[in-house]
Amino acid sequence: MLVLEDLRFAYPEQVESYAFTMEARASEITAISGTSGSGKSTLLDLIGGFAVASDGSLSLDGEDLLPLPPEGRPLSLLLQSESLFEHLTVARNVALGLPNADRKAKQQIGEALEQVGLEGLEDRRAAALSGGQKQRVALARTLLRDKRLLLLDEPFSALDEETRAATRQLVRSLTRQQNWITILVSHNADDVRALADRHYVIRDKRLEQIPVEPIARSS
Ligand SMILES: Nc1ncnc2c1ncn2[C@@H]1O[C@H](COP(=O)(O)OP(=O)(O)OP(=O)(O)O)[C@@H](O)[C@H]1O
């Protein structure tokens, strides 16, 4: 479980600090929404270690994350437009960050691509993929990195409706299957309704938990 307790942060010119308190559980998708400028990216930056909290606590399964640098935190980040290396193949993109591209890695890459429905596309250049396929490559990479936490920042916003629904479904099933703690930042109500197991809204620099609409589990 990821736990934030009164995690505090302020940009230099801000008088009042953000003070974030929330819980996110394994196998669940915790959605964060809020108006533009409410602090959603700031929250992800704090969890990722790109912003340094001035007070409060941040722990993962009881381990204090605050002393860890960003690269030492057990998390993957998936953004709106996934930054693949366009000139590299799908397999090379998935392999980025893996220790060695040995035979075992090759097999793992093949398996991960199969899990995200891209089997057989190892040798295609990323530039020749659709937006939805690129997000799948990014998810395959996330699978291989095998981190506890998955942070998603508006990951579906560049996708058409059909691809969006399929990619949502994939995120949900991977979260369950891999036991990830998935945090979804989105101001798209449909994404939140379709995916959220719990839902927080940022208001006045605080996180407020609100009920999840019943449709969440059926779509
Ligand atoms: N580096 C920075 N220095 C100073 N102020 C910042 C900085 N980054 C963000 N802010 C301010 O902090 C507030 C929260 O920004 P943040 O990007 O976290 O909001 P957000 O909810 O992610 O917005 P959006 O939905 O538009 O992406 C905004 O008022 C923003 O202008």
End-to-end separation in angstroms reads 25 Å
Largest sheet: 6 strands, mixed
Helix content: 25-40%
> Would you tell me which CATH topology of the largest domain applies?
Rossmann fold
Q: Which architecture of the largest domain would the CATH scheme give at its second level?
A: 3-Layer(aba) Sandwich
Give the integer mean of the pLDDT values: 90
Named once each, the bound ligands are: adenosine-5'-triphosphate
Number of helices: 6
**Record field, number of beta strands:** 10
**Beta-strand content bin:** 15-25%
Poorly predicted ranges? none
Q: What's the CATH H-level homologous superfamily of the largest domain?
A: P-loop containing nucleotide triphosphate hydrolases
Helix-strand makeup class: alpha/beta
Task: Write down the Rg.
Answer: 18 Å
What series of H and E elements makes up the topology? EEEHEEEHHHEHEHEE
- The number of distinct structural domains comes to 2
Give the neighbour order of strands across the main sheet: 6-7-8-3-9-10
Principal-axis shape equals globular
CATH class of the largest domain: Alpha Beta
